[in-house]
Design goal:
Elements: H1 6-12, H2 15-31, E1 37-41, E2 44-48, E3 52-58, E4 70-74, E5 96-100, H3 108-123
Antiparallel strand pairs: 1-2, 2-3, 3-4, 4-5
Helix pairs in contact: 2-3
Length: 128
């Protein structure tokens, strides 16, 4: 499977995952500064600045390691303070994440807080 764009991605997702992905994308797009970009990488939406910032991985797309819901992963989650204990660590040493089963579970405040922290971290990296 090689997904090239968001239209292809959304055509594969069940309705609930489409909504979750769309809501998460909007929060991320509205929070990230202008120098950050979105691309389809690993067949899912990937947001980067100088390095990777976050990724949205619906369970329908193979390779994300989840069976249900949509994963919001922070690429350098291991370097974030995450004072509220919002993110799960799982077995990955670098990418920390939160899994959403329904759109109603999404609270933008902790996501925005973590995104701002991830942006500060990203600005400390040299551009690749």
């Amino acid at each position: 499977m090689k997904i090239k764009n968001l239209v292809e991605l959304f055509s594969l997702l069940p309705e609930e995952e489409k909504i979750i992905v769309d809501v998460l994308r909007q929060i991320i797009i509205e929070t990230l500064p202008e120098y950050c970009r979105e691309k389809i990488s690993y067949n899912v939406p990937f947001f980067y600045g100088n390095k990777g910032i976050c990724i949205i991985w619906p369970s329908t797309i193979p390779g994300g390691g989840i069976k249900k819901g949509v994963l919001l992963g922070f690429w350098h989650g291991n370097k974030l303070a995450d004072e509220d204990g919002f993110l799960l660590h799982g077995t990955n040493k670098q990418v920390f994440y939160k899994i959403y089963q329904t759109p109603e579970e999404i609270d933008d405040a902790p996501i925005i807080k973590l995104l701002k922290e991830a942006i500060r971290l990203d600005s400390s990296f040299k551009k690749v």
